[in-house]
Amino acid sequence: MPSGQTSFQDLQTPALLLDEARMTRNIERLAERAKILGVTLRPHLKTAKSAEIARRLSGDVTGPITVSTLAEAEAFHAAGHTDILYAVGIAPQKLTRVQVLREQGCDLVVILDSPAQARAVAEAGVPALIEIDSDGHRGGLLPDEPALVEIGRILHAVDNLRGVMTHAGESYTVRGDAAHAEFAERERSAAVKAADELRDAGLFCPVVSVGSTPTAHAARDLSGVTELRAGVYMFFDLVMAGIEVCGLDDIALTVLTTVIGHQPAKGWVMIDAGWMAMSCDRSTAGQNVDQGYGLICDADGRLMPDLIVSSANQEHGIVSLRPGAEGPLPNIPLGTHLRILPNHACATAAQHDRYHVLPAESGPMKTWRRFGGW
Amino acid sequence: MPSGQTSFQDLQTPALLLDEARMTRNIERLAERAKILGVTLRPHLKTAKSAEIARRLSGDVTGPITVSTLAEAEAFHAAGHTDILYAVGIAPQKLTRVQVLREQGCDLVVILDSPAQARAVAEAGVPALIEIDSDGHRGGLLPDEPALVEIGRILHAVDNLRGVMTHAGESYTVRGDAAHAEFAERERSAAVKAADELRDAGLFCPVVSVGSTPTAHAARDLSGVTELRAGVYMFFDLVMAGIEVCGLDDIALTVLTTVIGHQPAKGWVMIDAGWMAMSCDRSTAGQNVDQGYGLICDADGRLMPDLIVSSANQEHGIVSLRPGAEGPLPNIPLGTHLRILPNHACATAAQHDRYHVLPAESGPMKTWRRFGGW
């Protein structure tokens, strides 16, 4: 608990708490890895959506970043960032907003995987990375598809081919460092192979960009890669803990909630954090340990063994012992503050418009705003 | 498509569209039912979170409403509403904000189900309804629990007993009018029985409040009930269609999205609406027909048979034919606008800060702001 003037005990609940010391430790961990691997880190800000956090990711400067919406690009450019990758396949209708940011001095780069997109982007004079599919997860071309070089030529002709990028979203579905290292190698080899195909065709391909939080922490070797992307690593969450990328005590985000009732016959404690505060994300349901809508800690952040948010309505959560756990349910009186570790930090944070920051050093709490929308 | 000056074709996607004609039809349907049943309708604004919509629910006046957060109570009071039920069990820490609103002339009433809450509320001089459990869904006392009269006495002693309320959340899990009518009768009989228990003990119990969207539409008789609550009825959604409370063409909310890519070998169309735009809600997964993250319509709102959002990442959706559907996948080029019917209107709307309103009459689109937070 912070020793400053403003305690989170005074906050209206539910509220999103950020443990700054844990976040700093997570940031330093991946920064160190990127240094050892010899690549530039380009953090994905879709999770944080905060200018204050963005600066902390790159040594208090406005470094290279990745975003998932043009609203993020605009907000981070306004906060001083000038090197931004918009890592969602570009729709032609969005190029006007991209051009406006570029004219304002922001080196905003888009991604694409089709000749139709490449023609629209070339006409708009916007630089792009070609998206490569390294794991069958989502978008992108296989490195040996003929469209790769066709797209490369369209962009190269107007000096807008910046390189290639890939993201192994499937790495979230496997557990343990060795499995993640395999996906990291898939990312590396697919991206490097695609870059080689382009270069063999006489095209310029300076950027080879890879990454996801699991692969970024597990990669053994990134030869040929120029930059590494990851997003949720700054906060971590129960999904990342479930696949052993972090421990539970690395998770920097919690939702502060208050006990609003009991159903003793059912073993339920009612809280004021439902899916509106936690999100509807149930990603741990498919993992070894289903954490419901989140794992319960006391107000000081100490885990309360086997207590989970087993059910959620819009503004109600039901806390109970996880199935099979030995009771009894601890006595948690009306008005008690609890903290909930979230399944998926990106989704939970998106339900809130600010972080209440528990400072690393003793001192008052801070409030950092989050961006939203598109 | 609206014929006005501003077409939704000019909107940045993803964007939340509201079909005003459908909403009006849905509003009139339940208003008519409440009239026939002889009860006051107290709409739940947790779904809409919009002052413009609130006025339309009660004949362009600021009528009685229900809210799920104090932030909603504050926003709606600022918009002129003075008769508000805060229908989430009260935490003692929240009573200061309740008192401030009451001092400003807002008749804000809270709910509770324990003597501890009743003592805090009585001390704060705030009126309350006692929550009754009619279906084992969430909070509330059984009508014959001795605590009911104990709580009643605490509140009655300071003239703060307003009555009883119940909500059959379990009615969402059964299908068809007859099944919903049974839950409506459970709500009615539990609430009326509780009111009678209080009255038999010599306590004053003017309000008997019941409701949920399925039961409100199915109730045959509400003798002894004074008011009816419902929330999602103004928009409806795939969950409500799945339990036959509405048809697909009653659903007033859609998310406008743009095609950003294809994976032809997999039968995937990539769109720019992921779970950030749709929410992570997968409530149709437990119904007869799993609608994925939503059902696809063309830009004019016509259903595209068997096309669903089968998978979603933060800002990516994958559209494909539903499992078992006969192909082929229609040709949907890059840049095409589609509209998505949501699983759960409350959750999807909460991901957006405004409604883009397709007007009932021809004319330009309107934009209505939504409230958020706590």
UniProtKB/TrEMBL annotation, chains A, B:
InterPro entries linked to this entry: Ala_racemase_N (IPR001608), D-amino_acid_metab_enzyme (IPR051466), D-ser_dehydrat-like_dom (IPR026956), D-ser_dehydrat-like_sf (IPR042208), PLP-binding_barrel (IPR029066)
Keyword Membrane: no
One protein family per Pfam: D-ser_dehydrat
Database matches in Gene3D superfamilies: Alanine racemase (3.20.20.10), D-serine dehydratase-like domain (2.40.37.20)
Superkingdom to which the source organism belongs: Bacteria
Keyword Repeat: no
Keywords from the named record: Lyase
Residue span(s) of domain D-serine dehydratase-like: 252-359
Protein family: Belongs to the DSD1 family.
Protein name: DSD1 family PLP-dependent enzyme
Native species: Chelativorans salis
